[in-house]
Amino acid sequence: MSDVSTRKADKRTLITDAAIDVFAERGFHQARVSDIARRAGVADGTIYLYFKNKEDLLLSVFEEKMDVLLAGLRVALADTSDPVERVRRFAVFHFRQVRENRTTAEVLQVELRLSNKFLKEYRPEKLWAYLNVFGQIVREGQATSVFRADLDPFVTMWAFFGALDELAMQWVLSRKSDRFDLDVAARQVAEVFIRGMSAAT
Amino acid sequence: MSDVSTRKADKRTLITDAAIDVFAERGFHQARVSDIARRAGVADGTIYLYFKNKEDLLLSVFEEKMDVLLAGLRVALADTSDPVERVRRFAVFHFRQVRENRTTAEVLQVELRLSNKFLKEYRPEKLWAYLNVFGQIVREGQATSVFRADLDPFVTMWAFFGALDELAMQWVLSRKSDRFDLDVAARQVAEVFIRGMSAAT
Amino acid sequence: MSDVSTRKADKRTLITDAAIDVFAERGFHQARVSDIARRAGVADGTIYLYFKNKEDLLLSVFEEKMDVLLAGLRVALADTSDPVERVRRFAVFHFRQVRENRTTAEVLQVELRLSNKFLKEYRPEKLWAYLNVFGQIVREGQATSVFRADLDPFVTMWAFFGALDELAMQWVLSRKSDRFDLDVAARQVAEVFIRGMSAAT
Amino acid sequence: MSDVSTRKADKRTLITDAAIDVFAERGFHQARVSDIARRAGVADGTIYLYFKNKEDLLLSVFEEKMDVLLAGLRVALADTSDPVERVRRFAVFHFRQVRENRTTAEVLQVELRLSNKFLKEYRPEKLWAYLNVFGQIVREGQATSVFRADLDPFVTMWAFFGALDELAMQWVLSRKSDRFDLDVAARQVAEVFIRGMSAAT
DNA sequence: GATGAATGAGGCTTCATTCAT
DNA sequence: TATGAATGAAGCCTCATTCAT
Fold it and tell me: Is residue A79 within a helix (H) or strand (E), and if so which, with residue range?
């Protein structure tokens, strides 16, 4: 990689990292481009060399974040094909990401609303890919009769993601002092869904 | 009720109703106060006799609708004390409200969550009251050994709400054509949680 | 005086008194009509039963204040015709008014600027009458060769008033703790002008 | 001075100059920021790169003009240490500035005093520095027994400034036709104060 | 006379984006 | 590539005044 492209990549990363922080702190609409520029240590105009506009910056941030998340999720699920175990790992993985990078949950929240409402034309494929991993787990569980066949994977998938997402948001928003244990929460949510979806009588 | 207070109440309602429509149509940030005023049939300044500012109008919509929602929920749960049945009714009630008040749901689901103030500063007591109804159901189920004792009602409560909320949002944001059946979703989510929380082996 | 007219007079007085306070506190432009109404204990609209508009209220306040001031001044100067003594009494009287009614100085300041600039058509006759008392003292002093004949009474008059007014303003604006002695100031200003205007070698 | 800083300084000056004109013409409250921008030949928003808001623009005009005034005053007094002569030069200098910069004087005399912030919150250090020059003259005169020792320099200083200020305001606000001679006024005010403060019997 | 809810014009200010350097 | 000063559209909100009761 040449010096120039390295520096370019660095600057782009500086901007997206700054953007994640500022979007998480203030939300998309309240975040000012100049805030992001200042935090990234670049000029306002520089942002427009890497991103078409503020909206594009948000989408890029989201896409990059989701790429990392999805890759990590695949690694976390790699060495087991047991649907039950995979559900557990999904929950644990999601909450570990949230804890290790608090802004993840916030950016997801913001994105979830904006991508559908404000940016009508944008389809958050990466988010769907992430969710579909769970949908696929459900389908596999149903195929192997581990999970009840009458469950709609679509409904289950969104319900599961909603549960994780809401808990993540509450954890992020709570004061450090009365912050609950994410590992415990992960296990409990996983168990509720596993038993809830279970085909066993 | 006197004529004056009736008219006053009416004007406030005119404004909140108009606000819900306009917020749902254009989104909070794109909605102009003058649009809301025109739709309500009042002058721009009149809005500021009832609400501190545009954001306060949004939060007031939330407060008012949550009051109605909570009252309705209590009615829906009134004639049964069976925790299992109450979970079912909670889900059914929630989704029925969403379906019957789509624009209101859209504002509460989407626009409200984009308000930085709502997420970061405002303490949504009304939301907590609504959720605690579910928390209470869990505790009663645990007390009667219907639900597993090792579940944290706090975690379960947020997980359940997150599941309902996320599905509601997907339904609200989806195009009419590919809108899924909320009754089915209500039943499935309720069953997953009921079985998931069940103390039975 | 009938009950009605008494009550009417009372209400008018309530409003002007409130207006003096509010104008002094916040200045003419920053003062809100509703603030004055609240302080007076009347409805906003009531003010418009007694005054044409906000501007008219200011002018009325000023006129009334000046009437009182002028009447008081005449009393204070009544029993002496010695120009030197009258200068002393003028200064003492002015500062006594300021001390006994702090808002006097502030209303004068506000008025002085507004009457000339904002209300071009308004001629503050009452202020001129007040000042002309000093102008007349100068002229009498010149006529009796107590004061130098080459002084322009117009210039001297404004200079004297400016000196009094500025000191009054500084006294009003100063914190109670480091507030200087107005009596001393009155005597010193009077002496400076008396000696300064004196015809004696 | 580099090109950039020159241009920046120029733009700031363009704005303050335009502001003085517009404030003088229409008064602070009637002046629209967009008028000032147009007169300065810049965009509305540009003003906010140099000034916090409209009121800050007014106060900045004050600060900048007082700097110039103070520097000029020091030059005017430079080549004499005779307190009597210095009093004369102070008055002459002050009125010369008023005459030569009528619009600036109008803003400083009239508009500034209508600003509540200026009167109540802002500490006009620059004004005090200007006044203290006179206070110092008094003290020097007292030290050399030219002026009476019993005069409070603080009182004398404000009285003198008040006299100059009030006359300046009357001159600025008067119609051209009946505008009095500022040179005569300067001489008369100076003589009144010199004799008034004189230690001689 | 008294009320105070309602009006609505108008302007200050923000901030995403551009472009000359 | 990088800068950051400049732009200017657009909208929230204030508040003097009115008028139906």
Answer: none
- Residue-range definition of the domain harbouring residue A4: 1-51
Residues C30 and C123 in one domain: no
In tens digits, chain D (201 residues) has pLDDT values of 444 444 455 899 999 999 999 999 999 999 999 999 999 999 999 999 999 999 999 999 999 999 999 999 999 999 999 999 999 999 999 999 999 999 999 999 888 888 888 888 888 899 999 999 999 999 999 999 999 999 999 999 999 999 999 999 999 888 888 899 999 999 999 999 999 999 986
Same domain, yes or no: C113 and C179: yes
Number of domains in chain D: 2
Closest nucleotide C1' to the C-alpha of C43: E3
Same domain, D38 and D73: no
* Residue numbers in A near B184 (CB within 8 A): 152, 155
B183 to chain A, minimum CA–CA distance in Å?
A: 11
- For residue C142, give Cα distances in angstroms to C149, C150, C152, C153, D9: 5, 9, 10, 9, 54
Interface contact A185, partner B, CB < 8 A = yes
Q: Cβ of residue A3 near strand F, that is under 7 Å?
A: no
User: pTM for this structure?
Assistant: 0.89
B46 touching A, CB under 8 A?
no
Residues 48-67 of B with CB under 7 A from strand F: 48, 53-55
Q: CA A145, CA A139: separation in Å to the nearest integer?
A: 10
Question: In angstroms, how far is CA D176 from the centroid of its own chain?
Answer: 21
Instruction: Kindly identify which residue of chain B lies nearest to residue A183, measuring between CA atoms.
Output: B155
Mutation target vs B (from A107, A138, A166; most B CBs, 10 A cutoff)? A166
Which CATH number covers residue C106? 1.10.357.10
> Which chain D residues in 17-76 sit with Cβ < 7 A of strand F?
42-46, 48-50
In DSSP notation, B79-106 reads T---HHHHHHHHHHHHHHHHHHTHHHHH
Which of B32, A26, A119, D54 lies closest to A34 in space, CA to CA? A26
